[in-house]
Amino acid sequence: MKIAVLPGDGIGPEIVAEAVKVLDALKLNLELQSAPVGGAAYEASGHPLPPATLALAQASDAILFGAVGDWKYDTLERALRPEQAILGLRKALGLFANFRPAICYKELTHASSLKPELVSGLDILIIRELTGDIYFGQPRGRRSAPDGHFPGAEEAFDTMRYSRPEIERIGHVAFQAAQKRSKRVTSVDKANVLETFQLWKDVMTEVGKQYPDVQLDHMYVDNAAMQLVKEPKRFDVVVTGNMFGDILSDEASMLTGSIGMLPSASLNDKKQGLYEPSHGSAPDIAGKGVANPLATILSAAMMLRFSLGQEAAALKIEAAVQKVLAQGLRTPDIYSEGTTKVGTQQMGDAVVAAL
Ligand code: NAD
């Protein structure tokens, strides 16, 4: 089992080191190989996703990714910015299915901005289509408007598009995920206004017929945004397009208290996957030893489950994380009075000890 370890920038190397420590402690037969990515790769070789890093990722069963980015690269041309490394990996590996669980651990209920009774026991899985939609649709650009309200004025445009096969494959991923959970899927669309999402809704309904054991309902994205803060526990699996998923999954992450707790997985049709925390490189706390490594450690658990077929090991990591939370250990982002504040490495060590 070959794993490409891409720590990246900011807190990336700190949190990935803790996840690697946890993987090592499991004594599985894993072959880990590291490579630079993002700003670190740009500094070393002039590109955020150098050919050697991409080749390593392509030849691996899974990628354990930290985070990329720093404000100092904001003035670089778009193609050389650290974030392009993630887009490049998604595209090159065809990582179309993004899994973002939002779980509210009972020990952290108070850390949510919502009332405890609304989030206690929350366990939602948002499945976001990751390689289509308005983020990738062509044509896109800026030009002088040929028509419209202000002909000749500067305008910008993007194209929202989805093909039937793209919707079908993410639909199957969602229904199959729901079969392993409480057998409910909510497909989020904007079919009342957009042709793209009328097709989305039609195809989801057709795919749903192949899964009679799973209950499917449809919800407009504006209502879904509202329901996520009004009654989040009504959801189980939520499936949606790239842009709506981007927004809703960040909204859902905040229900759980800290983004430092949330793992994610992006998979292709061969179950090869990129596993990373849902947060960014947090340059504001990089190098201080205070970043929460649990999202990355939980991403490693998802990697064992989805790409490496090691369910038992994944469960062990998740149980160990529960245990350290129950012991009262907290990094500053989830700290509250009466608990014990620890740093990044201490948290990683505690998870290893709990294992
Ligand atoms: P961010 O997620 O890096 O940070 C937002 C806030 O959350 C900060 O206050 C940060 O300190 C805190 N935070 C994040 N992760 C934490 C952790 N593990 N423990 C404790 N606190 C944590 O988002 P941002 O500040 O908007 O972006 C910073 C950089 O990260 C930018 O360059 C951005 O482009 C990049 N980014 C990268 C990814 C990625 O690599 N997938 C995702 C989002 C943002």
Detailed description of the structure:
The strands form 3 sheets. The protein has a 10-stranded mixed beta sheet, sandwiched between helices. It has a two-stranded antiparallel sheet with strand order 6-7. A two-stranded parallel sheet has the order 13-14. Strand 1, helix 1 and strand 2 form a beta-alpha-beta unit. It is built from 12 helices and 14 strands. 39% of the residues lie in helices and 19% in strands. The chain has 2 domains: 192 residues, 3-Layer(aba) Sandwich (Isopropylmalate Dehydrogenase), CATH 3.40.718; 133 residues, Isopropylmalate Dehydrogenase, CATH 3.40.718. The two termini are 21 Å apart. The radius of gyration is 20 Å and the shape is globular. The longest helix is centred in the middle third of the chain and has 16 residues. The chain has 355 residues and is α/β, with parallel strands linked by helices. Bound molecules: nicotinamide-adenine-dinucleotide. Nicotinamide-adenine-dinucleotide (NAD) binds next to loops.
In short:
The chain is α/β, with parallel strands linked by helices and 355 residues long. The chain has helices at residues 12-25, 39-45, 51-58, 84-93, 116-119, 164-179, 195-208, 221-230, 242-255, 294-306, 311-326, 344-354, and strands at 2-8, 31-34, 62-67, 97-103, 123-129, 141-144, 154-157, 184-189, 215-220, 237-240, 263-267, 273-277, 329-330, 340-341.
Rounded mean pLDDT score: 95
**CATH architecture descriptor text of the largest domain:** 3-Layer(aba) Sandwich
Bound ligands, each once: nicotinamide-adenine-dinucleotide
How much of the sequence is in beta strands? Answer: 15-25%
The parts where pLDDT drops under 50 for at least 5 residues are none
CATH class of the largest domain: Alpha Beta
Tally of strands: 14
Q: What is the strand arrangement across the widest sheet?
A: 2-1-3-12-11-4-5-10-8-9
> Looking at CATH, which topology of the largest domain would you report?
Isopropylmalate Dehydrogenase
Radius of gyration computed on alpha carbons: 20 Å
Write down the domain tally.
Answer: 2
**Tell me about the biggest sheet?**
10 strands, mixed
- CATH-wise, what's the superfamily of the largest domain? Isopropylmalate Dehydrogenase
Question: How would you sum up the global shape?
Answer: globular
Order of helices and strands: EHEHHEHEHEEEHEHEHEHEEHHEEH
Bin the helical content.
25-40%
The N- and C-terminal alpha carbons lie at a distance of 21 Å
What count of helical segments does DSSP give?
Answer: 12
Secondary structure class reads alpha/beta
